[in-house]
């Protein structure tokens, strides 16, 4: 315990607190303690007197920032003539937050920076000044069909520029936490020295209302991620109004972060506030003024501000001076203040840091935009507003250049002091940023033995979930690539049979294991280690998906290809975190998503919220996802082997795989000859029964189809073929893009008779291929909500059990005869 430097004062405080407890009850005492523990005065953490010396040329940096502000506004305004839109106000408020980072903090090739999506015009403008983008490229902002710049940070659209997609708000902060954690994971496992890397996440105060934004704060503190800094631009406005009209977002966020174990740095007021903040009464008032009112102050006259904020205080400032100070003097608009806050954050140790920076939204864009509720929707400036902006920024733009219909771009020249300074600062920090760099690094082909084991089959019932886990366990033993596998599971690893990995791969924890596990005497005991390989995330699909994204893009962010597999209840994947999976595709992630306990009917007794009959349909909508529904262990092995080749081979592709596997143990047949192509392309004939009709089945449904085949043969003398469909969506994609005969028609060529499709999915999943079936088509599926019951009873309910399939085949055959 720390030494008590003033025991008498401590005793007095404790006596006062006890008096509160007696008079108002323990709840009031607890409230006061929490307030004292989680909030500080509404002033800057680093006062002007304690600011470090500024290491750069402020005059040059101010001119660079002026050019960037102008060109960002010009780019959006020029595009508005085509109705393309854009966002003026976000970057205008945050410009110095980025400029200080570009000039002094962001290390290329070492750090990861999550740029706020709506600020992208300013990032493009900075790249233009550095010579990385041209005027024609800026003029094609939001015109991607013509080869232009995407609206927001999209790595798939600009794979050499952007690293992280961030405009789906909430995903950026969540992914940043897990990226910082993954950096430590790589370091602790000895894969890469990331001890000097730092993760920066630039966020809006309104964005913090997204639940994902704060979902992982305690994890970041618990794991001591002092390699992570959040910079929250507190301009007090969300998209259409105040973030907290009736309260104060800065203090709220301070409480949230401080209570979660983060360091908090507040950079609120500019230097012109220094004399005013000597008044304790004024500081107290600032801490009570609602944000909605303060937003009004930022757009009001000095007399209004004097009457409402300074009433009764002796303020020897003119009304104009008061208007200027209160209306615009914010720490976020002063590079010295921003630098001091960043330096303080970098010096903090033992926990992550959040910097709460106060700005004015739309700063420098004129009275019609600054601090106005509608400024997020304002897409252009008028000629007069550009003239005022020019004068305010001190840019050499002649009046004649503003007479035309479009404002000009302004560049000081490649040999100008500004351009040379910007280039030098980036050279000192490792090169340009943002930048995404990929150096091809194919992984060795794994040994065939693990795959051959699955190809042999098993008379003992084995669930395809277990088949995948056994395969992954064997592949993790590979001498060359085994350590690059990253098993990720939100919880219930034992449900998926993953406890066999605990003693050998171990569970990652930066703290190691500080306790004796309750099952320590068991062969498969729970084991944590600082170099553990398994990311056991707890009950958080969102966090697990963020970990998967970090690992899946490690080949680009770190030059270290990793092979993540994230195994989860399939119902809680695409449905719950589909937005993150879309962002994964945008970030060009690679790896295996494993939807376990798949299907609407295989989870005995669980019911509606566990029963997944649609994730295959959701996955089919993602262009980067190859979705498979394997029926047998050898199909799982064949698909994984091909996935490793496509994602980690010499011609690596920016795709990821989704495999649905089942928890229903079934005998596993040996792999027939010559079916590999059919497995990978989506369909092959598994059982030839006579060809009078054709049963197409995927996943666990193939076992119902095989039983129906037997019933039809024995009871009705009808011979039907059973086909294993490993991917309905891949068959559809092939058919939509084929220049010749689609593969589904090639597979069925030379056959006749009706086609009946059956799966443990809603009928829309197999119906994806129905346009290319040139004969009578029937689909059976599990449309509707799931329900509790035995597998047999639930399948009868949905009409996909063997007897229902038999009846559907008989009806289709009879109809075909009529």
UniProtKB/TrEMBL annotation:
The answer to whether the entry has keyword Metal-binding is: yes
Q: Please indicate which superkingdom the organism of origin belongs to.
A: Bacteria
GO MF entries: magnesium ion binding; pyruvate dehydrogenase (acetyl-transferring) activity
Q: Per the UniProt record, which EC number(s) apply here?
A: 1.2.4.1
**Where is the stretch described as Disordered?**
397-451
What keywords is this UniProt entry annotated with?
Answer: Magnesium, Metal-binding, Oxidoreductase, Pyruvate, Thiamine pyrophosphate
Q: Where is the Transketolase N-terminal domain?
A: 108-267
Q: Which cofactor does it need?
A: thiamine diphosphate; Mg(2+)
Q: Where is the Pyruvate dehydrogenase E1 component middle domain?
A: 446-666
* A Pfam family assignment: Transketolase_C_1
Q: Which parts of the sequence belong to the Transketolase-like C-terminal domain?
A: 682-801
- Which residues take part in binding Mg(2+)? 205, 235, 237
Q: Where is the composition biased (Basic and acidic residues)?
A: 417-429
- The residue ranges flagged as biased composition, category Low complexity, are 430-440
Q: What class of enzyme is it?
A: oxidoreductase
Q: Which reaction does it catalyse?
A: N(6)-[(R)-lipoyl]-L-lysyl-[protein] + pyruvate + H(+) = N(6)-[(R)-S(8)-acetyldihydrolipoyl]-L-lysyl-[protein] + CO2
What function does the entry list?
Component of the pyruvate dehydrogenase (PDH) complex, that catalyzes the overall conversion of pyruvate to acetyl-CoA and CO(2).
Protein name listed in UniProt: Pyruvate dehydrogenase E1 component
The scientific name of the source species is Microbispora bryophytorum
